[in-house]
Design goal:
The complex is a heterodimer. The longest helix of chain A has 34 residues, at 97-130. In chain A, helix 4 packs across helix 14 (294-319), helix 5 runs antiparallel to helix 11 and helix 9 packs across helix 11. Chain A has a single domain (2-33, 91-322), classed as MetI-like (MetI-like fold), CATH 1.10.3720.10. Chain A is 69% helix and 2% strand. Chain A contains 14 helices and two strands, in the order H-H-H-E-E-H-H-H-H-H-H-H-H-H-H-H. Chain A is mainly alpha-helical. Chain B is globular and about 70 Å long. In chain B, strands 1, 2, 3, 4, 5 and 10 form a six-stranded mixed β-sheet that branches. In chain B, helix 2 (35-51) links the parallel strand 1 and strand 2. In chain B, helix 14 (332-342) packs across helix 15 (349-357). Chain B has two domains: 24-144 and 303-367, D-Maltodextrin-Binding Protein, domain 2; 146-300 and 388-433, Periplasmic binding protein-like II (D-Maltodextrin-Binding Protein, domain 2, 3-Layer(aba) Sandwich). Chain B is 50% helix and 13% strand. The chains are: A mainly alpha, B alpha/beta.
Chain lengths: 326, 434
């Protein structure tokens, strides 16, 4: 769903890195000619579209339809037989106390991770934007984390928060907080949130920084004459100009917290969720792949599809209205 | 042009590899083992391929136990199943109840012209992967038992003997604590204190003959008063500092023992290979304790680990090769090799005798504890259990056990929840299997 979001123009900083911003600036004449191109055969455009459509169909629509259809059945894992059970897979899941608590955690986790990684990413971008000496060193150091794969960052988190040898746990014990990640629900939730936020900050940082560098110097200088307070200038001038970037990042971050944190969670609960917090996606995996309950797991993934669908509509209907693209 | 070149090269490579192995029948083995255990599987396969020319076995690691089972199932549904699939203890019901997914190991071996001898296997491994008539469906492979590892320094310092029963544990644990040790940790309460509480105490785990006879109306006996008593004791010991619970993760509970802080650690007989490298002190091992006060307690434990299943829908020639490999695998020399290379128990009497005659257990007595525990007399309820969706039931147990030790729920309530949710899953499984 996130891929349909209109991307902000990654100019400035990104173009210097060589992130193909040049192609964007086509002369208007060329664009006019592009429009007038006619295909000689009516089949040809479809032929060009075919590979893309095939990929979308095979990897998105087909599995989705399969998930929807198997969510109405109770199925033997090996496929020897299945019984139509109507909506009972859905009711079983929705009325289960465990599912409800996982859903609640997922909501809280998503809000926290999105809010923290966006705000910290923005703060760092604003600060890095002002640095003059050694700017590229700072930026590289901040961005480098993004290159770490999710399971690896989970692994790093696991070591930092290890019950026995974790340095963070040792440090906290001096303050009287005896963390037990893997045993105490809230300690594990804390550790997961920290790792998930840490992993996502660089991504937000890159986009915010490029957004900031796209704010015209003339606008900033004009604002400087009107207003002395730096904070107020940021709120009234810079932030509104960053809105398209922020909106794009909001969508990406929500999807990240909902889905892409799977690797981190899987590694941090060490294959044994027990009473530790997990997200809805992890539950789909646990029931489907570990428990071999295809019907129940499909029903859960359909529920997730609906959640994402509703969220996307909400974001575009109510949030995008407030965003001004220049 | 270069593309065409590449394609023709690839085609040639395929053709060549096909001709080179044309003489042998290829069979595949999907397993869920990594690290050293995965390497040993490769070594065994090489030994098998070197021992004969008719068959060529290719082992492929599919990740963890659960991933191996999930990929095996997905492959079966699309007709791409391997000849041999390794399935772990908790997944046994899933594959055995799927009639038509596998060929019973016993039939496979008899059809290939060998004579299958159930009596050749040690007592504890004979029933777990068999049907209710005792016919072997899966071929037991890596087999382990939950045993108690001991830090002798702790016992020396406290001046007490290693306990054989939980009654004795209650006597010695306070002294071990006084001596500055955590008396006990345990790595997997589901396996060691639940499933094997039933086997070691010889108490029924579920109706329908522990689930062997039928999936219909199978219900677990998790509010059994003795089981509840065991966990109330564990909770009381935990509160008194006589037992420490570090959550559901295996390693979090093993690590303090390796560091020499713990007097007794309940692990797996298969742990000792790794423990030899990681433990900071000498260690020994003993049987999993039991309650002397419970009538009939002290029987053998269920076998843990995994078995190999011959998947159905394969040509006769390949099945013959699979049977050949099973025969090879259970030969005393290979069993002894596997036993010594990994720490899993030898599953045949002949292999055990062979290792014994060579003086292996005099040098490494710890390696014998698991086998001896599996060879204890078995009771009516220590042969095995067959419960569907069992991996999920274990997850429910793990969740409630965390809650019990953090004080969020009581032992009684925790087990009531597990029993309720677990029995719901069993009913659900009966629907899928029926």
């Amino acid at each position: 769903m996130a891929y349909t979001t209109s991307q902000p123009q990654p100019g400035g900083f990104l173009s210097r890195l060589g992130f193909g911003a040049g192609a964007r600036k086509k002369p208007a004449v060329a664009a006019e000619e592009m429009k007038r191109v006619q295909f000689t055969s009516p089949v040809l455009p479809y032929l060009f579209l075919f590979p893309q459509l095939a990929v979308i169909f095979i990897f998105f629509y087909w599995p989705s339809v399969q998930a929807v259809s198997s969510s109405f059945y109770l199925e033997d894992p090996f496929g020897f037989g299945s019984t139509f059970v109507g909506l009972s897979n859905y009711t079983d899941v929705l009325f289960s106390a465990e599912y409800q608590s996982i859903a609640l955690f997922t909501a809280v986790f998503t809000v926290l991770v999105t809010f923290l990684s966006l705000s910290i990413g923005l703060l760092l971008a604003v600060k890095a934007d002002r640095v003059i000496r050694g700017a590229s060193t700072y930026k590289t150091l901040l961005i480098a984390v993004y290159a770490i794969a999710a399971p690896v960052s989970g692994l790093i988190g696991m070591m930092i928060f290890d019950q026995h040898v974790g340095p963070f746990v040792k440090m906290m014990s001096y303050f009287g907080w005896h963390m037990q990640v893997g045993l105490n629900y809230y300690d594990t939730a804390f550790a997961m949130t920290v790792v998930a936020v840490w992993k996502q900050i660089p991504y937000n940082f890159i986009f915010f920084l490029s957004g900031l560098q796209n704010v015209p110097v003339s606008v900033r200088e004009a604002a400087m004459i009107d207003c002395r307070s730096g904070l107020r200038r940021f709120w009234t001038v810079v932030l509104p100009l960053l809105a398209p970037t922020a909106f794009f990042l909001l969508t990406i971050n929500v999807t990240y917290a909902l889905f892409d944190t799977f690797g981190i969670i899987d590694v941090m609960v060490k294959d044994k969720p027990a009473n530790n917090p997990v997200t809805l996606v992890y539950k789909v995996y646990a029931d489907g792949f570990r428990g071999n309950d295809i019907g129940g797991s499909s029903a859960q993934s359909v529920i997730l599809m609906i959640v994402v669908f509703v969220l996307t509509i909400f974001q575009f209907r109510f949030m995008e209205r407030r965003v001004h693209y220049n | 042009m270069t593309m065409i070149k590449k394609f023709s090269m690839a085609a040639m490579a395929v053709a060549m590899s096909a001709t080179s192995s044309l003489a042998a029948t290829n069979i595949t083995w999907w397993h869920g083992m990594g690290g050293r255990n995965g390497e040993v599987i490769n070594e065994i396969s090489q030994k098998f391929n070197a021992s004969q020319t008719a068959c060529a076995l290719t082992p492929i690691s599919k990740g963890t136990y659960e991933e191996a089972l999930a990929t095996g199932i997905a492959a079966f549904r699309s007709g791409e199943q391997p000849n041999i699939l390794q399935v772990f203890d908790a997944g046994a019901a899933t594959i055995i109840n799927a009639k038509g997914a596998t060929v019973a190991a016993e039939d496979l071996i008899n059809n290939a012209g060998y004579k299958f001898d159930r009596e050749a296997f040690i007592e504890g491994v004979r029933y777990f992967y068999a049907d209710s008539e005792g016919k072997f469906i899966g071929m037991p492979f890596n087999s382990s038992a939950p045993i108690m590892y001991v830090n002798p320094q702790a016992f020396e310092k406290a001046g007490v003997e290693v306990p054989k029963t939980w009654e004795e544990f209650e006597q010695v644990a306070p002294k071990l604590k006084e001596a500055g040790f955590i008396p006990m940790t345990a790595s997997q309460l589901t396996w060691q204190f639940t499933e094997n509480f039933f086997s070691r105490q010889n108490i029924a785990f579920a109706n329908n003959n522990n689930g062997y006879d039928s999936v219909v109306d199978t219900k677990m006996n998790l509010t059994d008063k003795n089981l509840v008593m065991m966990f109330e004791k564990l909770k009381a010991w935990s509160d008194a500092g006589l037992y420490k619970f570090y959550g559901a993760s295996w390693n979090d509970n093993q690590k303090p023992f390796e560091e020499g802080k713990v007097a007794m650690w309940i692990g797996s007989s298969g742990s000792f290979g790794g423990l030899q490298k990681t433990a900071s002190m000498p260690f020994s091992a003993d049987f999993l304790p039991y309650w002397k006060g419970i009538q009939g307690a002290g029987t053998n434990t269920f076998i843990g680990g995994a078995a190999l299943f011959a998947m159905a829908g394969k040509p006769e020639a390949e099945n013959k090769c699979t049977a050949d490999f099973f025969q090879f695998l259970t030969s005393p020399e290979i069993q002894k090799f596997y036993h010594q290379a990994t720490g899993y128990v030898a599953i045949t009497k002949a292999a055990y005798e062979l290792a014994k005659s060579e003086g292996y257990y005099e040098k490494t007595p710890v390696a014998e504890v698991g086998i001896k525990q599996l060879m204890l007399p078995s009771g009516e309820w220590s042969k095995g259990y067959r419960l569907g969706f069992y991996p999920q039931i274990r997850s429910i147990m793990e969740r409630e056990y965390n809650k019990i030790f953090s004080g969020e729920t009581t032992v009684q309530k925790g087990f009531e929840t597990i029993e309720k949710e677990g029995n719901d899953l069993l009913a659900r499984f009966a629907k899928t299997a029926g």
